[in-house]
Write a structure and sequence with these properties.
The protein has about 180 residues and is α+β, with helices and mostly antiparallel strands. About 35% of the residues lie in helices and about 20% in strands. The chain is globular and about 55 Å long.
Length: about 180
């Protein structure tokens, strides 16, 4: 925790002197179809993760679904942000666990409409984050405040909560 706190203090000090250094392009995720319903997303550092659909939707069911990765992003981003805030505040954490759950209607994924002809949303609904945290000798109030502050600074949660404009550019390759 001390290493994390020192790194965060160092970065904050730099950004106070040079605020423009805070704005940067994020590492792109490149997704490539590998056949069937399998897609592999790669990071510039060489790391990759495969996704697939459940067998009921024509996939093999042996990899994460993109929706599960989204929930993993929500939960891991908040857990990371809680650890960062605890490190800066000098809170000795015993454990942090964040579970992200949601409900989805697969009819929306298939482009289906409800009985009145309105297209169903493919987006998850009823998104819930359940935080389990243990920090000896830290009040419940302080931990709740720590989590609330962490939520306000969690990039994935904020992106999910805001309607972000997404630009799509299409390049059709010649055969």
């Amino acid at each position: 925790m001390e290493r994390i706190a020192a790194a965060l203090h160092r970065v904050e000090s730099i950004l106070k002197r040079r605020p423009e250094a805070g704005l940067h392009g994020d590492a792109p995720a490149v997704a490539r179809w590998e056949g069937g319903a399998r897609v592999v997303s790669s990071h510039p550092n060489g790391a990759s993760v495969a996704t697939d659909l459940p067998s009921e939707l024509g996939g093999t069911g042996d990899a994460f679904t993109p929706g599960w990765l989204w929930r993993a992003a929500l939960s891991s981003c908040l857990a990371t942000r809680i650890v960062m805030a605890a490190a800066v505040d000098g809170i000795d954490l015993g454990s942090v666990e964040v579970q992200a759950s949601s409900r989805s209607d697969v009819r929306g994924l298939l482009g289906m409409k409800d009985d009145s002809g309105v297209p169903l949303s493919p987006a998850p609904s009823d998104v819930q984050l359940h935080v389990r945290i243990r920090a000896p000798e830290v009040s419940h109030e302080r931990l709740h405040a720590l989590i609330a502050h962490s939520q306000a600074c969690s990039p994935v949660q904020i992106a999910a909560a805001q309607a972000l404009p997404i630009e799509v550019r299409v390049e059709v390759l010649e055969c």
